[in-house]
């Protein structure tokens, strides 16, 4: 008995050595093997990164945080820089009634809309709405669902039962109906969109995380941590969270595409960001329908942009799931 | 089984209670002032007496718990007005019509639209999924899978916009503007409902094709399928009699989980195709801050969804006798 244990211990030690490589090289080799296994997923990952860049995700979030915290100079937006230094982009709200409803030309690559605004420029700025709303909303969803899932699994009993009821309620609420209600009444805006979509998506996603967290809770190292006297918060953050984190990332990636579609639906119905700031769904909206007959590009390009982004999110998410969680391979 | 169903129905009650509390408190804490402003604005003068009278008339003068008790109909037990429990969802602030009557008039339309969409999605995508699985890694499989993934990524309303734009450009086709009910003019009714129902079916259909395919592939590798072939059953008999039934359980789950999508689809498409269902009622009510209507509709939508999920759960044991819920 003793012998076997000693033997196991040495075996495990030699086994774990190779994993002790530096973090950057581990990440690099992980990415490389992902790219080799999932070429299409990788391509879609690059498309997502492309949209993140032209959607100014980083400048927008840095600026939003620094205005809330009240410090710093604003980070310049890529879209503004492009507009300044290239000839074919214009401010998103600049109207030019002499050039309304044009087809594509060298001045307006994708043509103009019914008040003469440049479609390509509006697509570029619309990317910011979509990307910022989807990433921020999914971040909130995952924050809520990880908190709920882990604490339900950790405390069990009454907390668990209560959270389960909450999850039930949120699953019973038809998402779009509720979102229309909330945004129609509170008025829409960036923060309202982000928080409404984010919070509604959170509780239902906590189910899988709870399941995984429960199985983690039964492992010996949790007991060991408790015996040593770690606080509840510390056990949850240090020991449970890292073990369910791949699941959190996974559900976030798979949710991004859904949130883009939700945002598009809402702005199509007129509950997205208020004009003049463009969003893709609103560009397809009902008021513009009569003009789409004269300039069909108005009906095509925004939809293509939405479709491409959602497609990339979905394929990238599927690829990530195949790699991270082989049990779920090929489902859905 | 009866015990399970009874249990589930009992569990619906606290959930519904929570839904009513959330919608009511959520709406009431922000709304009343705004709504009165809106109505006073219509009269064109800011008169405190009118404001007071309106508050009294609309039942907004009481505090929130009292208002809630009135709305739910708890107050009826100690002599108050009737409420939700007694089948009274209140009256619209603007038209003055009873919300329940309006819902009764509009619900069949939305329900029909959703049902058509769901039936089309299942009827088309289940055979396609089976076909895709049978032809695994041949061109029908590749074609169907790519199509399904593509359809999943496209927003339904965009497809509708394309159909409307290019339908009118190329074929001079446009959906009828005047709505006609099923019993008044069946032909015109079908003409109106067909396009939106097909378009709503696209999104869930794409997901279903992929799911049926993976489930069928799983089942087709089982021993009892080989046995069925070995004892001389024909291809169709094996596929539809033995394999599909076993592959359907997760599919039923997905149909249940996909119901909110169908509801969302009806809301969006009623708006596009001018169909007077519950979705349009909701959007009109939200734009007019007509809160009795908003509360009533949210409650009805939630109840509808919960009952459908329950039905889906119960249908498991009909499809698979091995599942005994207890």
Structural summary, described in words:
The complex is a heterodimer of chains A (332) and B (326). By secondary structure, chain A is mostly helical. Chain A has helices at residues 2-16, 23-37, 39-54, 57-69, 78-85, 119-155, 157-172, 175-186, 190-217, 220-228, 232-269, 280-283, 289-294, 297-324. The two termini of chain A are 46 Å apart. Chain B is mainly α. Chain B has helices at 2-30, 32-43, 48-57, 64-72, 99-134, 139-153, 156-170, 186-220, 223-230, 235-257, 259-272, 278-287, 291-319. The mean pLDDT of chain B is 80. Chain B is globular and about 85 Å long. In chain B, helix 5 crosses helix 11 and helix 12 runs antiparallel to helix 13. Classes of the chains: A mainly alpha (332), B mainly alpha (326). Chains A and B meet through helix 7, helix 8, helix 11, helix 13 and helix 14 of A and helix 1, helix 6, helix 7, helix 8 and helix 11 of B.
Topology:
The complex is a heterodimer of chains A (332) and B (326).
Chain A: H1 2-16, H2 23-37, H3 39-54, H4 57-69, H5 78-85, H6 119-155, H7 157-172, H8 175-186, H9 190-217, H10 220-228, H11 232-269, H12 280-283, H13 289-294, H14 297-324
Helix pairs in contact in A: 2-3, 3-14, 6-7, 6-9, 6-11, 7-9, 8-9, 9-11, 10-11, 11-14
Chain B: H1 2-30, H2 32-43, H3 48-57, H4 64-72, H5 99-134, H6 139-153, H7 156-170, H8 186-220, H9 223-230, H10 235-257, H11 259-272, H12 278-287, H13 291-319
Helix pairs in contact in B: 1-13, 2-3, 5-6, 5-8, 5-11, 6-8, 7-8, 8-10, 8-11, 9-10, 10-13, 11-12, 12-13
